[in-house]
TrEMBL record:
InterPro entries the record matches: NAD(P)-bd_dom_sf, SDR_fam
Superkingdom of this protein's organism: Bacteria
Listed name of the protein: SDR family NAD(P)-dependent oxidoreductase
Keywords: Oxidoreductase
Family of this protein: Belongs to the short-chain dehydrogenases/reductases (SDR) family.
Length: 220
């Protein structure tokens, strides 16, 4: 299951995992867009409406979809580009955290316990180098950057909680990727999707609690 899969990186991840032989559920806040994306990808692709900021929506999606083996937490927003830490609207910061951090956390709470009970699962949280202390947080989008720092922290928490149950939880730094969020980036969504898909299909005994891109592992 991929959140925010109606366009950009999420859609590309869905297509990549489908090409690797997985059964896919695409989700998006807009029900019609989720359905349209599923139809475009193929008749075997399932879809569901899922607003990561709405607990009732997440609960309804969990009931409709049932347990999943792989969760790609991709839904995210960048609302404060061009601002700075001293003047950024804290309302924008709150909205950013609501999607990027709490949305990922809410979806994990809904779907990861089933993985723990079945003692197998893969969770990928789409993060960003802008939220990495080793890279240096990016002050030009402070709410977004700190939200991704928090996503990295959530990755560590989930990995620690599930490491004895066959569940691998990793964060992927796709790098600047050409999507609606960053239309001028050089890297295509299809290229970045391969890194996300690699983390989503790690073998048993693979790494957990890492910040990665393909085989490259970054310091937090």
């Amino acid at each position: 299951m991929i959140t925010g899969a109606n366009r950009g990186l999420g859609r590309a991840v869905a297509a990549e995992l489908l090409a690797r032989g997985l059964r896919i559920v695409v989700t998006a806040r807009d029900e019609a867009e989720a359905a349209a994306t599923a139809r475009e990808l193929g008749p075997e692709v399932r879809w569901a409406a899922l607003d990561v900021t709405d607990q009732q929506s997440v609960d309804a999606a969990r009931k409709a979809i049932g347990p999943v083996d792989i969760l790609v937490s991709n839904a995210g927003v960048l609302l404060d580009s061009g601002s700075d830490p001293l003047s950024v609207s804290l309302d924008l910061v709150r909205q950013t955290f609501s999607v990027n951090l709490l949305g990922s956390w809410r979806v994990a709470q809904a779907f990861v316990p089933d993985m723990v009970r079945r003692r197998w699962g893969r969770v990928v949280l789409v993060s960003s180098g802008t939220g990495s202390f080793s890279h240096g947080l990016f002050a030009g989008s402070p709410g977004y950057s700190v939200s991704k720092t928090a996503v990295n922290g959530l990755t560590q928490l989930l990995a620690g909680q599930t490491k004895d149950y066959g569940v691998l939880v990793n964060a992927v730094n796709p790098g600047p990727t050409r999507t609606r969020m960053m239309p001028g980036a050089q890297r295509t969504a299809e290229e970045a999707a391969r890194d996300v898909a690699d983390a989503a299909t790690l073998p048993d005994g693979g790494p957990t609690g890492t910040f990665r891109r393909g085989e490259q592992v970054f310091d937090w």
